[in-house]
Amino acid sequence: MSKKRWLIVPLCVVLCSQGLLAQTPVRKVLGINEMFRLADENSQSIQTYKTGKEAADEALKNAKSQRLPDIGASLSFSYLGNGYLWDRNFKNGQNISMPHFGNNFALEAQQMIYAGGAINSNISMAELGQQMATLDWQKNRQEIRFLLTGYYLDLYKLNNQQQVLQKNLDLTEQVLRNMEARRTQGTALKNDITRYELQKETLKLQLAKVQDACRIINHQLVTTLHLPDDTEIIPDSALLNEEVKTLAENDWQLLATQSNVGLQQARLTVKMNEQKVKLERSELLPKIALVAAEHLDGPITIEVPVLDNNFNYWYVGVGIKYNFSSLFKNNKKVHQAKLNIRKAQEEYSLLQEQIENGVQANYVNFLTSFTDLRTQEKSVELADQNYNITSNRYKNDLALLTDMLDASNMKLSADLNLVNARINVIYSYYKMKYITHTL
């Protein structure tokens, strides 16, 4: 029994160690451009819109195939019963013997040569639908990129908050050690130490909340990018050191006019409605087609007695078809299609106004983020000076503990606000790129 125990214990140790190793996260330093590339390859949402593009491509091929001729063939065999023949007053009836085996073969072809523009309009609609599907994919791609950018920058902000909180926690512990030494010397009170220990616990709680928030956002990024579940994403530290170059507002407005996918889709919607007008008008015109057919029938039942022969005939010609009901039905559809054109044009103008206002508002916020950054940089400089002065005064018994706590809290707040301000500048820049759809 003891031998079994000595075998089980090492095995448990090995299994537990393997479990711990399996739970160890794989740290991955990820830049924004690399994140965008992974999203293009792995995002389920982007893949869905790619499939939509492929479906639109097939729809275009199907529309073009309508230019090809229609060819059909039929073959049938049948059993014919005997006939019965009467006079016109249904008297003097008599049985008519018929050959019982019947056959029919037909080969027919039709080539549309004029459809009032319906075929060309359908092809144009399919081409516009293909372009719309491509724009849907591009728009979704921009939305996913901006969503990931928000997650990424939030994670960057939280990681920096962890560093700042940890730094202040280490600083608090150092102060506590100094105060314990002073208490031993009789120059500090237990109450002072208690108040700093309370601040230490508060910092620990804030740090734990930030770490939990990091895990949540990290999971969202990993899920969207379809990375292994144990991946821990580390934002590239060089991001905040990159110089953000802004454009003039007019340049951003021009970019939005040229690149915003929503505007491009609105313009396409106008064109699609114009094609719908042409499609409805085509119903008012005749349809002309070349037709050809080959038939082989037997027996010949139009003769009495029936001829037990095969009869072959063929023909070629021109077929004309016109739907007279379109004269009083399609005029209403044409009028409705014209109203849809006007509605699409008005929606395009409205969207132009909304995007212009959005660019202007976000550009102002973008400039404000630079002002906020400069303010926070000055605040950190002043908070550091205040903390150093207060710390020296406290060591020399020239300041109260409350002064020290206030200086410490001011420094913590200034450090956090500076990190947030730097990230807000980058976020505002990427938001400008998102509004203009140049991400």
Written overview of the protein:
The chain has about 450 residues and is an alpha+beta fold. The protein has a domain at about 245-285 and about 330-435: Outer membrane efflux proteins (OEP) (Up-down Bundle), CATH 1.20.1600. It is about 65% helix and about 15% strand. The protein has 9 helices and 8 strands. The protein has helices at about 1-25, 30-40, 45-65, 120-185, 190-225, 250-260, 260-280, 325-395, 400-435, and strands at about 25-30, 70-80, 85, 95, 100-115, 230-235, 285-300, 310-320. Strands 2-5-7-8 form a 4-stranded antiparallel sheet, with no helix packed on it. A two-stranded parallel sheet has the order 1-6. The protein has a two-stranded antiparallel ribbon with strand order 3-4. Helix 4 (about 120-185) packs antiparallel against helix 7 (about 260-280) and helix 4 (about 120-185) packs antiparallel against helix 9 (about 400-435). The protein is elongated, with a radius of gyration of 40 Å. The two termini are about 70 Å apart. Residues about 1-5 and about 10-20 have low confidence and may be disordered.
A few lines on this structure:
By secondary structure, this protein is of the alpha+beta class. It contains 9 helices and 8 strands.
Q: Could you give the topology of this structure?
A:
Elements (H helix, E strand, L loop, with lengths): L1 H22 L2 E5 L1 H11 L1 H21 L5 E10 L3 E3 L8 E3 L4 E14 L3 H67 L5 H36 L5 E5 L13 H11 L1 H22 L4 E12 L12 E11 L4 H70 L5 H35 L4
Helix pairs in contact: 2-4, 3-4, 4-5, 4-7, 4-9, 6-8, 7-8, 8-9
